[in-house]
Design brief:
The protein is mainly alpha-helical. It has 25 helices and 9 strands. It comes from Dyella lipolytica.
């Protein structure tokens, strides 16, 4: 047994070991041995439970097809299990070998599915790949958060024995990220339905990832026995008010230092805000409307008494599940509760101590009033849908407790409780019944609210945990939405390119036709078949291409071929044009859905027409058949529609028709300035005539037409407007821009403004 106090065997943070040295190599080999043994045990245990899980699901399957998927999956897993196990353990072994030999990676990961982060590859990711990536990303995030303490200690100790190279969660060879990636790679050996694979990932989480704390504890114990950072601590420090709070940045010190305080990058602005609030509350207390001193006197309640009374009220609130509907009734009910919380608190204090307090300490009274105003603001905040206002307002008691436990809640923008409320409000801002038909967002927010009401006692770390869960949900939702959003944008971009090409082709043809009275046969070819060929050429080759210029030359030649032929020279010129016309038509029409037989039929009609032009005799059998004097129909596929029949049609189709500035109404002009300042990512609320509300994000502004594309939180298209159309809708009150800054910041500004006006009114009456 190694003695911890033997100087020669103690390793501290300043003593970097060379992994190639005997001592460093022995320690790394010990880590590899522990990891290999335990992971082999974990993965084997997992596969022992796969059959039972899939059999249970097969029995509960909704139909025979689903049942067969699970049975097929069972057979495939039984057959491929040895290969998958070997592949997984081999990949982990390679990672550990590379690590031992010093070839460990130096870059961190952002996501196991990096193409999902908005890169150009996003549109290429299949739905199954997306589902799998989301499952792995969720699995990694959850376990890195759960294992923070033990994993951090392993990282620090591995860093020491690797010569000081920084090791983090992403580069730790036995960290959740690399283990999950190794398992995902090994699952490529399994040809099973994605539903089966997702079940196996859940079992991997349950039987492998949840056992990693044992692995990390054994590794830490082994390295501590070897003298590697034996005093390393990872603590959550209890604050002066008696509560606990997670310190910023992980609150970890390799030297055993106390946890670091919360970030104070905004401390100056926060201190100024708090001083303003204290001054305003002081002025308010100087002129109370209902002085607390008028009540029964008694000793001031302590912070612990306040927290105890609030805990009773919180447990009562947790057992009540209010009916939350879109109507004003729910908001009125919860508003009554918000406004009367102080009275309820005083009554509860009286019940607990047998005597109702006459006064509350100044700092506690200010805190109660400040939290009350915060939640009054939430109930008045039009950035939140009514259903979400009611849900979030239920958090008043937990947040009052948090503010009494930790006075820094209002002082720091990065306070965990503040970040959670801002995150909930940001998620709620995008909610609408239409975009949340499955109720996933609503249920997620409600579950977080319920958990705070049911579980929050005095452990402030719950806010960090719930923030992490909310962020995980938001990240998964955002990835799904980004995929749909990109498809919508690509589809819109494609339609605009098609429309732009269509208009360019029509304009070129109509300008060249001008006042010429073309025969129906020639006009039909130009306005339909050839116009579509020109559109295709623009989309494929561009407007500056040689192919497009050749297409325009054909239009000129085709129109010229219809001019009257009265002289030998004119006949000669026409005969010289005809071979080129025929070659161009054959080449162009073949690319726009014409069959060979249709091309030959059209060319036969043109041959007859040109022979008449040249004054040659045409047998009656070759003349076009007519019905009541109408020319025989052209052999043009039904899918080929005319691009435009006249310049008037072209003008009517203008998609950018905006009135002159002088003709715009003043109220629309004002909104137009706001519209022009909008940036992608801004949320708006749209309302229809039947009072239906939809919230949508500005996703994309077309560089071609300038139109604004809006999508809901699922990435599905809601509407698109030209700037003038959107300004008109806003001026009519059918759309409004939602605030983009954080709820807490908006609330603090509103509270200061409210107290300032109260102070002004008080001064006026003196």
């Amino acid at each position: 047994m190694k003695e911890a106090n033997e100087p020669s065997k103690i390793v501290n943070i300043s003593q970097r070991l060379d992994p190639s040295s005997g001592r460093g190599g022995d320690l790394l080999n010990a880590v590899r041995s522990i990891a290999s043994r335990r992971l082999q045990q974990y993965i084997g245990n997992m596969f022992e439970h796969v059959d039972d899980a899939l059999f249970d699901l097969a029995e509960k399957a909704e139909n025979n097809a689903a049942q067969m998927h699970y049975f097929d999956g069972m057979r495939e897993v039984r057959k491929r299990r040895p290969v998958i196990e070997r592949s997984f353990l081999a990949q982990v072994s390679r990672e550990l070998n590379d690590f031992v030999t010093g070839n460990h990676p130096t870059t961190t990961h952002t996501s196991v599915a990096s193409p999902l982060a908005g890169s150009p590859e996003l549109s290429l990711v299949a739905d199954n790949e997306l589902e799998e990536s989301l499952a792995i990303t969720s699995l990694i995030g959850k376990n890195e958060t759960r294992l923070t303490r033990d994993l951090f200690a392993v990282n620090q100790r591995l860093s020491v024995i690797c010569g000081g190279t920084r090791i983090d969660d992403a580069t730790n060879p036995v960290g959740p990220a690399l283990l999950a990636q190794a398992f995902r790679q090994s699952m490529r050996e399994l040809s099973a339905d994605m539903r089966v694979k997702l079940i196996i990932y859940k079992l991997f989480d349950r039987y492998v990832m949840t056992s990693l704390d044992e692995l990390y504890q054994e590794i830490n114990a082994e390295l501590m026995r070897a003298g590697v950072l034996p005093q390393l601590r990872h603590e959550v420090v209890r604050n002066a008010a008696g509560g606990t709070g997670a310190a910023a940045g992980g609150a970890v010190s390799a030297q055993g230092d106390a946890a670091a305080p919360l970030p104070t990058d905004d401390s100056e602005a926060s201190a100024e805000l708090l001083q303003t609030l204290r001054t305003l509350f002081g002025a308010r207390r100087a002129h109370p409307t209902v002085p607390l001193s008028a009540m029964t006197h008694g000793p001031l309640p302590t912070a612990n008494e306040l927290i105890g009374a609030l805990s009773v009220l919180q447990s009562q609130a947790a057992t009540v599940q209010p009916v939350i509907q879109a109507g004003a009734g729910s908001v009125l009910d919860i508003t009554e509760q918000v406004l009367h919380l102080k009275e309820q608190l005083l009554s509860q204090l009286g019940s607990l101590r047998g005597q109702r307090p006459g006064q509350i300490a100044t700092i506690d009274e200010d805190t109660i009033d400040l939290v009350g105003m915060l939640f009054e603001f939430i109930l008045e905040d039009r950035n939140l849908p009514a259903q979400m206002q009611v849900l979030l307002a239920r958090l008043q008691i937990p947040y009052l407790k948090a503010a009494i436990i930790d006075r820094k809640l209002f002082a720091h923008r990065q306070h965990p409780a503040r970040r959670l409320l801002d995150g909930l409000a940001d998620a709620a801002k995008s909610w609408s019944e239409e975009s949340d038909r499955d109720g996933r967002l609503h249920d997620t927010i409600k579950a977080i609210v319920d958990r705070l009401l049911q579980e929050f006692d005095d452990d402030m770390t719950i806010f960090d945990r719930l923030s992490a869960e909310l962020q995980q949900f938001q990240d998964a939702s955002r990835r799904r939405a980004e995929l749909a959003e990109q498809r919508v944008a690509e589809s819109t971009r494609g339609r605009e390119k098609l429309e732009q090409a269509r208009r360019r082709a029509a304009r070129e043809i109509l300008n060249r036709i001008g006042d010429h009275a073309l025969p129906p046969l020639v006009h039909g070819v130009l306005s339909r078949a050839w116009a579509n060929y020109m559109v295709l050429t623009i989309l494929r080759k561009g407007e500056e291409s040689t192919e497009f210029r050749e297409a325009l030359r054909f239009v000129d030649a085709f129109i010229a071929s219809t001019k009257p032929v009265r002289t030998p020279e004119a006949k000669r010129d026409l005969r010289q044009l005809l071979p080129g016309i025929e070659r161009a038509l054959r080449k162009g029409l073949a690319q726009v859905a014409f069959q060979e037989a249709d091309i030959e039929r059209l060319l036969a009609q043109l041959h007859t027409y040109y022979r008449q032009q040249l004054g040659e005799a045409v047998p009656a059998a070759e003349l076009p058949q007519t019905v009541e004097g109408t020319p025989a129909p052209l052999p043009i596929p039904e899918s080929i529609q005319p691009i435009a029949e006249s310049m008037a049609d072209l003008e009517d189709e203008s998609i950018n028709a905006e009135p002159e500035a002088a003709a715009i109404a003043p109220e629309v002009r004002g909104e137009l300035e706001r519209v022009n300042a909008l940036k992608p990512g801004t949320w708006l609320e749209f309302s229809s005539e039947n009072e239906h509300f939809e919230r949508a994000k500005l996703s994309w502004i077309s560089p071609m037409s300038g139109r604004y594309l809006f999508v809901n939180r699922r990435g599905l298209k809601v509407a698109d407007y030209s700037p003038y159309e959107l300004a008109t809708v806003m001026a009519d009150g059918r759309a409004r821009i939602l605030a983009s800054n954080a709820l807490f910041d908006r609330a603090m500004d509103a509270i200061v403004d409210r107290l300032s006006h109260e102070d002004g009114r008080t001064s006026d009456t003196e």
